[in-house]
Amino acid sequence: MKRIYLESKRGFSLVEIVCTVAIILILCSVTVVGVTDHINNTKKAAAIVNLNYRKLDQIDNEVFGDDEGHSAAAGSPADTGTADVTADTANSGNKISTERQVSKTMSGGIANNLSDAADTPAQAETPEEQNPESPRDAAIKSCADTLSNYAKQHNVAFLPGTENFPELLAQGEVDAKALYDAGGYTGARYFTYCPATGNVALANGEGKWMECRDGQNMIKASLDEAGAAATPGCNVRTIMDSDFLNNPNKVIYIGINKTSDGTYQIVPNVCVDVNGNFNTVITHRFDSGTGWASSRDTFDAVGLIGDNGKKTANFNAYVNYVTNRSGEMIDTTGLDMSQFTTRRSTDAQNKIWQAYIQDLRTKY
Q1: H helices of 3-134, where?
Q2: In Å, how far are 70, 177, 338 from 121, measured between CA atoms?
Q3: 3-class SS at 252?
Q4: CA dihedral 238, 244, 247, 250 (to 10 degrees)
Q5: Which backbone phi and psi does 5 adopt, to 5 degrees?
Q6: Cβ 324 vs Cβ 361: under 8 Å
Q7: pLDDT band at 182 (very low <50, low <70, confident <90, very high)
Q8: Nearest-angstrom CA–CA distance, 135 and 141
Q9: Nearest CA-CA partner of 82 in 60, 122, 109, 45
């Protein structure tokens, strides 16, 4: 007799078959749910689009009547017009009046307000409602208007590329005040403002002192610019032209002090120079102290020595130095400059110039 060997051929166990079927069923159910949700979302989207078309049709009928040329049939494609709205630029690094145009579709605007869909006619927004003015924008506009009015009253001649200087300076003043408030300061501080970048910062790190060496010369009267420019070492007046305003290394100083009654002194280091242009003022060094008074009538730019050896070359002296009695910018265009014809002004001419500036400080 031959012995027969039976070979074992192992198949899938019952547990493995059940697990495989279960996995397949789970995957099928997930797919069905996903497809069902997609179909439902598509139906909802179609319903929203149809509702938008009906709303657009209703608005068109309100505006244009039943003219078929101005209304779109419900459920059919319609032109979605775009309206440009201006976005505010709150970044102090941007130039004043910089605007971005943001496209906004009418259908999208209506779809975002489906809860307000009613039988009452849609009310058109006024320009003010479409682009409300922010407090910062309102403050800049008010300050710019004041500066523009001052420029008109004093016949300021804007150099090419500097026509928007009132708006630029207004932005600097408003943003400097915001930085002052954010710092919680109660005393005087000086800020630098770069028109080219829009950047406002505390002067010299902490804002406790300032000294401008760039601008209208109110120390020496070297005002024959062509001749002085050809003379090495001569103190030449710097012109605040378009190159100045677009140079990231050029700054304007702005002094701010919050008084005990809660009001602010915001004093930019700006004047109307001998050529009738806006310009910065070359100054001595002033600190942020306010405890010592500075007499406008006897003002000495170097700084007087008061009681206990305290200098009065502080914030009060700074204000007196760059403004007239009423707190306005000094306009230096009234002096007859025909006598300043040499390359370098004489001591006698310097005294005439300094006396004229001091007279402007004590007037009005």
Answers
A1: 14-64, 106-111, 127-130
A2: 17, 45, 71
A3: strand
A4: 50
A5: -100, 120
A6: yes
A7: very high
A8: 10
A9: 109
State mean pLDDT over 35-39: 75
CB-based contacts of 223, cutoff 8 Å, min separation 6: 217, 237, 274, 337, 340, 345, 353
Phi, psi of 262 (to 5 degrees): 90, -5
Residue type at 53 in one-letter notation: Y
- Tell me the two tokens of residue 273: 């120079």
3-state secondary structure of 193: strand
Q: Decide if 158 contacts 147 (C-beta within 8 A).
A: no
- The residues near 102 (Cβ < 8 Å, ≥ 6 apart) are 84, 85, 86, 87
* Contact partners, residue 16, CB within 8 Å, separation at least 6: none
Cα 283 to Cα 299: distance, rounded to the nearest angstrom? 13
Contact 173, 145 (CB under 8 A): no
- Rounded CA-CA distance 364/358 in Å is 12
Helix 135-153 vs helix 165-182: angle between axes, to the nearest 10 degrees? Answer: 130
d(CA 130, CA 247): 36
> Which one-letter amino acid corresponds to residue 263?
T
Residue 360 makes CB contacts below 8 A (sequence gap 6+) with 324, 330, 331, 332, 334
Which letter does DSSP use for residue 204 in this model?
A: G
Angstrom distance (rounded) from CA 130 to CA 263: 33
Task: Render the burial of 1-25: b for 16+ CB within 10 Å, e for the rest.
Answer: eeeeeeeeeeeeeeeeeeeeeeeee
Which of the residue ranges 76-80, 131-135, 158-162 would you say has the lowest mean pLDDT?
76-80
Q: Quick one: pLDDT band at residue 171, thresholds 50, 70, 90? A: very high
Query: Distance between CA atoms of 344 and 276, rounded to whole angstroms?
Result: 21
pTM over 0.85: no
Quickly count helices (H) and strands (E) in the chain.
Answer: 9, 10
pLDDT of residue 205: 93
Q: Which residue has the tokens 């319609």?
A: 78
Spatial neighbors of 101 by CB under 8 A, at least 6 apart, are 84, 85, 86, 87
Classify residue 237 by burial, with Cβ atoms within 10 Å: 0-12, 13-18, 19+.
buried
CA dihedral 148, 152, 156, 161 (to 10 degrees): 50
3 is written with which tokens? Answer: 């012995």
